[in-house]
Amino acid sequence: MGNWKKVLQIVFDILAILIALASILSVFRNTEWRYLKFLDFPRIQLFFTALVGFVLIALIPHKHKLTQYVIMACLIVGLGLNLRYLLPYTIISPKDVPQAENISAKDQVFSVFLSNVKMKNNQHQALLDLIKEKEPDLVLLMEVNARWDQAVKSLAKDYPYVKKAINEKAYGMALYSKIPWKNAQVHYLNNEHVPSIITEMELASGKRFTLYNMHPVPPKHFEHLPDNKGQQEKELIKMGRMIKQNQQACLVMGDMNDVVWSHVDPLTKTKDLLKDVRVGRGVFPSFHTQKWYMRWPLDHIFTTEGFRVKTLERLPSIGSDHFPLYAELVL
User: Fold this and answer.
1) Which distant-in-sequence residues (6+ apart) come within 8 Å of 330 by Cβ?
2) Residue 214 exposure: Cα atoms within 13 Å on the Cβ side
3) Which of 113, 157, 103 is nearest to 134 (CA)?
4) What is the rounded CA–CA span in Å between residue 58 and residue 98?
5) Start-to-end C-alpha separation, the chain
6) Model's pTM, two decimal places?
7) Mean pLDDT over residues 264-273, rounded?
8) What is the pLDDT of residue 1?
C-alpha cells in the first residue's frame, strides 16, 4: 500500500509540474510556434486544474517538504498568471463597452447574430429556426460552402441586403442584413482563400458605422485548408490599420480563431481603439460545442467608442463545433 501512495504522489507531482509549466510558458503567447501559442487557449482549464492540483499537493504529505513547497509555489504562479488574463472576463471587472441603460428615442438599437456553421454540418434547419426566433438585424455566417448557401437561401426573403464570398475551403462567408448598407465589398487581406466583408451601415436614425466581418486562419497548420505557414498572421493588423484611418464608429465581428484574452491591441495594433464586449460580462465560450474540455471563446465582437451593449448571449448549438453569438447593441 505504501508503494501505491508513493507512486500516486509522484504522478500528482509530475502532473502539477506540467500544469504549472504550461501556465508559465503561456505568457509567450505572441509566437508563430503553434504549440506554444496553443497554451494561451485553455486558460480556464489550466486555472482550475492548477487550483485542484494545489489543493491535492497541499493535502498529500511529502517526505521532502522543499519539493512540496516548490511545486506549490509554481502552481501559485500559474494560478496568478491565468487569473490575470481571466479576471477581465468576470462581472467584478469594469465593462469595456458600457451597458445600455435609459435608452432614449434618438438611440438606435440593433441586433447581430454570428455563427460559424461548420462546413460539414448538415443541421441547416436548426440554424434557420434560431435566426427566426431571435430575428436579428444582421446575420454573419462563416464556413459557408455551396451546400450551406443553398440551404439558407430563404433568408434573403427577410434580409434584402446580402453579400457572399462562398468557397469550399472552410472560409466561405455570407452576410445578411435588414439594415441598409453601401459599398459592401469582399476583401482578401492576407490569403486568397480567406475573405472578409467590409461595409458601411446606415441605421434608421441616420447614424452610420463601418462593419468589419473577419475569419482569419488559426495558429495551426492544416494540410488541406488555407494556411499562413511560414508567415505572420496579418489579417487583423491590416483591418486595424483601416480602423485607425476610419472616422466613423466601427464594429468588428467574426470567428477570430483566437481567444484574445484582452489582447485586442497586440492583435490589431489599434492602440485601445477597439473594445471587447465580453470584458466585464463573462467568458461566453463559443467553441467547442461537444468537447467541454476544449471550450474557450473564439467568436468575438469588438467595437470602437460610441457603442453600448444591451444584451449579449451565447445561443444553443446548431450542430456546429461553434455556438452562435447574439448581441443587441446601441449606437
Assistant:
1) 100, 103, 107, 108, 109, 307, 308, 309, 310
2) 29
3) 113
4) 41
5) 67
6) 0.92
7) 88
8) 43
DSSP-assigned letters across all residues of 62-104: -SSHHHHHHHHHHHHHHHHHHHHHHGGGSTTSPPSS-B--S--
| 72: amino acid identity, one letter | M
The pLDDT tens digits for 25-38 are: 988 877 767 778 88
Residue 28 to residue 31: CA distance in whole angstroms: 7
Cell of 184: 459592401
- 37-84 pLDDT, tens digit per residue, is 889 999 999 999 999 989 988 887 777 788 889 989 999 999 999 999
Is 211 in contact with 183 (CB distance < 8 Å)?
no
Q: Please report which residue ranges of the chain form alpha helices under DSSP H.
A: 2-25, 34-38, 43-59, 65-86, 124-134, 146-151, 235-245, 264-268
Dist CA 264 CA 190 (whole Å): 18
Please name every residue paired with 252 in a beta bridge, in sequence order, or none if there are none. Answer: 212, 302
- Provide the residue type at 247 as one letter: Q
Whether residue 124 has a cis bond before it, omega within 30° of 0? no
Residues 6+ away with beta carbon under 8 Å from 85:
43, 261, 262
Q: Taking a C-beta distance cutoff of 8 angstroms, is the pair 139, 152 a contact? A: no
Q: Cβ distance 307 to 276 under 8 Å?
A: no
Q: Which CATH architecture has domain 109-330?
A: 4-Layer Sandwich (3.60)
C-alpha cell at 312: 449579449
Q: Which three cell numbers stand for residue 301?
A: 465582437
131 confidence band (pLDDT: 50, 70, 90): very high
pLDDT of residue 220: 61
**Confidence bin at 230 (pLDDT 50/70/90):** low
Domain extents for the chain?
Answer: 2-89, 109-330
Amino acid at the residue 221: H
